Amino acid sequence: MALTPSTMLPLGTTAPDFTLLDTTSGTMKTLNELTSKVGTVVMFLCNHCPYVIHIQKALVMVAREYGEKGISFIAISANDPLQYPQDAPDKMSECASTLQYPFPYLFDETQAVAKAYEAACTPDIYLFDEALRCVYRGRFDDSTPGNQKPVTGQDLKDALDHLLNKTPISPHQYPSIGCNIKWKSTDAFHS
Q1: What is the reported pTM?
Q2: Residue-range definition of the domain harbouring residue 33
Q3: Which segments of the chain does DSSP mark as H helices, in order?
Q4: How far apart are the C-alpha atoms of 159 and 107, rounded to whole Å?
Q5: Pairing, β 71-77 against β 39-44
Q6: Is the pLDDT of residue 56 over 70?
Q7: Would you say residue 189 lies in a domain?
Q8: Does residue 30 belong to any structural domain of this protein?
């Protein structure tokens, strides 16, 4: 595990489009069919990362709470399943079912979507407004495995509340920290 911070996609960036396999339904899903007219959270997750596991239950609660307010949540795993079989699509589907993910869990087989979003770690979280412009990117909250701080999702929730209330979201945002995305070995640049 290489501890990696998120790269912090520039604010205002338009969400890169995609069509990916939804491991929970077995169907292909596009960004456009999964977005909301209010706001959309795109998260790069995986099954095995202790940083993701640390926030999973709270993340599901936040997604349920804000989903009822019109926010769409999308989870994507881009890890190479040859290196990490526990992140293969069938295991993703099992994880989503066990944790009752209230959002699709998509598999980025080519890793092109992760690269387009400049995702670097899991979890890596992005919030896009109704026009799919990035208004927040960074951490879920300041809790990490071992630091004894409660998992609240406060950083993301603050951004979501500002978006819902149509008030400015502070540009002072903290990068997420987690395991590096497991890039395919054929891409020596990202290995």
Answers
A1: 0.93
A2: 3-180
A3: 31-34, 50-67, 89-99, 112-116, 154-165
A4: 26
A5: parallel
A6: yes
A7: no
A8: yes
